[in-house]
Structure formats: structure tokens, C-alpha cells
Amino acid sequence: MPERTPYIAANWKMHKTVAEAAAFVDALLPRIAATQHDIVICPPYLALSEVVERSRGSAVRVAAQNMHEEPLGAFTGEISAAMLVEADVEAVILGHSERRQYFNETDEALARKVPAALAAGLEPILCVGEGEEARDAEQTEDVLERQLQADLAEVESGRLAEVVVAYEPIWAIGTGRTATPEQAQEACAFIRDVLRERGAVADAVRILYGGSVKPANAAELMAQPDIDGALVGGASLDPEEVAAIVEAA
Ligand code: PGA
Questions:
Q1: What is the CB < 6 Å shell around ligand 1?
Q2: Is 73 exposed, middle or buried, given 0-12, 13-18 or 19+ CB atoms closer than 10 A?
Q3: Whose CA is nearest to atom 9 of ligand 1?
């Protein structure tokens, strides 16, 4: 079974000016100097370059929070993969539930965004997860399977290991209501099973848990066999909390 390097992603959402981003990186780097894990910071677009420049030579890599599926065109307000690559951004969050919920992100668009990111040399961090109603109706697996099959349909199986999948139950995001380690493990194992239909490459895919991760619950979540890291929102705004979560991985 391939060794999967732990992966911690900090999703700042619409937080931090360029100056605040700079101060964060300066505070974080000395605290994670010894880590062997993958650390990925996902700032708003305007702070991407600042975080790239300040974190050169460290374990930190930088991801955007979204991108458009087309390489260029009349899409006011959008950003392309090539623009991110030019800024030395290495990864991109795709399909975050907030984008699905508030910005009409569809599985159809994601089916094009994931391969477009890979083609441009970006590591896609694909988010999937069920809402509260689906969980209550015991439809979690149906939702996950549908999202994975749609969003990864155009990805060649040989490149699947380059995709990072984040399991983010919507009811746990920003609510303080973390999934239990058992619930998170069960869903992440299911995700790996779905990926296994594409071959043994599934064992190399990093699967993250996201939803109210904080230093106090990170170790227990990431100790689960199919959870390879965390996508952290609220707690990722504080460099001490990020360092503590990296330490727990
Ligand atoms: P949270 O957000 O840690 O604030 O729950 C996680 C996410 O949305 O990625």
C-alpha cells in the first residue's frame, strides 16, 4: 500500500488582506519548520502572490479557492488555471460546498474543472459532502458517489492519484459540529471504495476530512486509516492553531 503523506490545507475563505496574509505566513513558518507533511494555504486571490513569495523554500504550498474551467474568454470576474500557474500557485480547491450552495457551482462544471486543473499542472482539491437532510435520510453514500462519479468522470484513472479529495459534510462546516471520527472514517473509506472502481490508484489518493477541525479534534480524526489530512476553515486563520493541527497529523 503506498505511503500517503499527511496533507493539511488551510482554507481562509474570504478572510485576510495582503498585509494580514503576510503576517500570518511570517508567524506560521517558524512553527512548522520541521514538518514533513504537505501544508497548503488557500488565500483569497489577491493574497496568493504574497503567500507564494513569503513561503518560498518552506513546506508551504499555495492553493486558490476556485478557478474557471475555460482557459480564457468573456467570463467577467473569473480566474483561469494559467493565471494561477503563472503566479506559482500549485493547487486549487474545487467544488467547495459554499461555492456549490451560494455560487451555483455544478457537477457539470466540476467535471470540466478537475481535468482542466490537472492539465494546467494544478493539484485539484475536490470537495464532496452531504447536507444534513441527506445524512438524516441515510443518503450520505448516494450523495458522495454521485458527486465523485460526476466530478471525476473526465479524469484519466492514471492521474487520479494527483487529485486530493476532501470529505466535508455540510452540516459540520463552520458549525462547531464536527463529524465523529467514526462517521468521518466511514465516509472516507466509502470514498476510497468508490475510487477503487478506477483501480488500485485509489490507495494513493489523499482523502481529507473537513468540517470544524481544530487542534483538539485533529489527532483523533487524522488517526483514522482512510483520513490522510484535514481541510481547515475557521481554525486556519490562526497560525498557532494551524501549527497545532500540523503537529497532530
Ligand atoms: P470549518 O470549514 O473548519 O470552518 O468548518 C471547513 C471548510 O469549509 O473547508
A1: 11, 168, 173-174, 210-213, 231-235
A2: exposed
A3: 233
